[in-house]
Write a structure and sequence with these properties.
31% of the residues lie in helices and 13% in strands. The protein has helices at residues 40-48, 60-68, 72-79, 96-112, 133-146, 162-166, 184-193, 227-240, 256-264, 286-294, 343-354, 369-374, 405-414; strands at residues 18-20, 23-25, 28-30, 52-56, 119-125, 151-155, 176-181, 203-207, 213-214, 247-250, 270-272, 300-303, 312-315. The protein has a domain at 13-281 and 401-414: TIM Barrel. The protein has a six-stranded parallel β-sheet with strand order 4-5-6-7-8-10. Strands 9-13-12 form a three-stranded antiparallel β-sheet, with no helix packed on it. α2 crosses α4 and α4 packs parallel to α5 (133-146). The protein is α/β, with parallel strands linked by helices and 424 residues long.
Length: 424
Amino acid sequence: MAGREPIEDMKCVDDFRLRLGRRELVPIMIGGMGVDISTAELALEAARLGGIGHISDAMIKTVSDRRFDTKFVSAKQKRYKHNVANVDMSVVKFDLGDAAEATRLHVQSTMEAKRGDGLVFINCMEKLTMNAPRETLRVRLVSALDAGIDGVTLAAGLHLGTFGLIEDHPRFRDAKLGIIVSSLRALQLFLRKSARSRRLPDYVVVEGPLAGGHLGFALDDWMNHDLRAIVAEVLGWLSQEKLDIPVIPAGGIFTGADAVGFLEDGAAAVQVATRFTVAKECGLPANVQQEYFKAAEDDIEVNGISPTGFPMRMLKASPAIGSGIRPNCEAYGYLLDSNGHCAYIDAYYRELARHPGAKKISVRDKTCLCTHMRNFDCWTCGATTWRLKDTTRRLEDGSYQLLSAEHVFRDYQFSKGGTIALPD
């Protein structure tokens, strides 16, 4: 029987390069974790090290208030405080000027701080409908492009009309534009609908069933899918159609060796996020990062509590699960559809009617995602989160040592044979 290949002869991620137009990059992309979990600091480290980092425009006005001491959230809350006791949220609208300014502040400050040869992208979720889906999406995209973002990753939705919203922007063909899909069919739909813009996406992120947060699969079916099989199908179809679009797998890629396996099979880069949730530059509070370290494999679940309709992977101990807080759409309301509707509003008032006079109610089937994400109480995570404890050292007080983003990035870049470098 042939022996195992000597580790010195194995390839590492640094033996490959991602080519986007004229740019040549380390083929590592850090995923866009919303509500400032993928902070500017985390994205900037990826760019400094020659890869790609993401910031996110999820709940952008909340992020702006934290980072730049703006008062967008409180101003909106005051404007609609008369509607607090109303089930009908159709009157609760976002000020598009505020949304544009919040995006500009976040993107511009990040880009002004950028160093190195890498890139910074922004993750833009279609499911953040904000009671005016097309208008708010257009404002967020245009503002990010105006502020100098290197690229935009279209997430959480099919984005069938998104290119049409920005095709008149002067940077439409200059900025890097990509999309996240979980199937070949989703990619084909996007390409068909965006064909009139005569512009292909610069990259496609193929997100598999082991990813963190929202998943692009059915709640009862996600476990029947395999990232490697989906990537192979997408690569085969693109080759058959003679379409030169870089493919970037995501979800469950835990080591440099995992990444190399996809790169050798034809992927252009990999997108990773779970291991960066416990980096010092990540936006998660330190006490929540310790919950991620402590998690066992059976502490992770995929549930249907997100009002978006997508299944969502998270830690079972998340305070958001079963919480019955009042919907705070007056302050947030990012998931309100064009009719001012959100599935959590229905669930909350249903339970309120079932328990009249109760001081506290519990809502098990949905959660107020806006409030809980704002408070870091919705602990979304990847399927490999239980392995995080093996990437660091346990300290004398029983807690786990946080890592630097550079340490994690370099480990992906240079490790071989499935090894993981522990911090000093």
